[in-house]
Amino acid sequence: MKKTVSISQTYPRLTVYSDENYRGRSRIYRGNTGLRNLDNILDGVESLRFFSTSSNATLVVFTRPNFQGGFRVYRGNTNLRDLDDLIRGEDVESLISTNQRLTLAEIRAIRRNRSLPTGYNLV
User: Fold this and answer.
1) Please, which domain of life does this record's source organism belong to (predicted)?
2) How far apart are CA 123 and CA 121, in angstroms?
């Protein structure tokens, strides 16, 4: 008798690395996630890979912890080999990874309220 195997994968998948160029220790996050302080993860996140099957997937990186400061928006699959000086000469300090298409108005509301929409994992 054949055994049925099912695999469940949740997207998006965000892999963060402790060193530049996708090296060092890594950690994987799945689903809609906000990382409020990258310095507290792996003693500092230096690079990342963002993957989703949805073209609406959004990665937002911020220059300050808790989704504050300047930000940059990426749509779809994204690989960032070095998070230093990424946004107008400033490092990435927090980020949001989601399968939803976040609008600029929604991103600004998150920054203003310092909170994620319902259903997001906050790390």
Assistant:
1) Bacteria
2) 6
Element holding 110 (H helix, E strand): helix 104-113
Measured over the CA atoms of residue 108, residue 100, residue 58 and residue 30, the dihedral's sign is: positive
Q: Is residue 31 within 8 Å of residue 119, measured between CB atoms?
A: no
| 112 three-class SS | helix
Which DSSP symbol is given to 48? E
Closest of 49, 40, 34, 58 to residue 123, by C-alpha = 34
pTM: 0.89
List domains and CATH numbers for the chain: 13-122 (2.60.20.10)
Q: Concatenated DSSP letters for 66-77?
A: TTEEEEEEEESS
Rg (CA), the chain: 15
Q: What is the pLDDT of residues 45-82, one digit of tens each?
A: 999 999 999 999 999 999 999 999 999 999 999 999 99
For 95, phi and psi rounded to 5 degrees? -160, 165
**Calpha distance 28→121 (Å, rounded):** 13
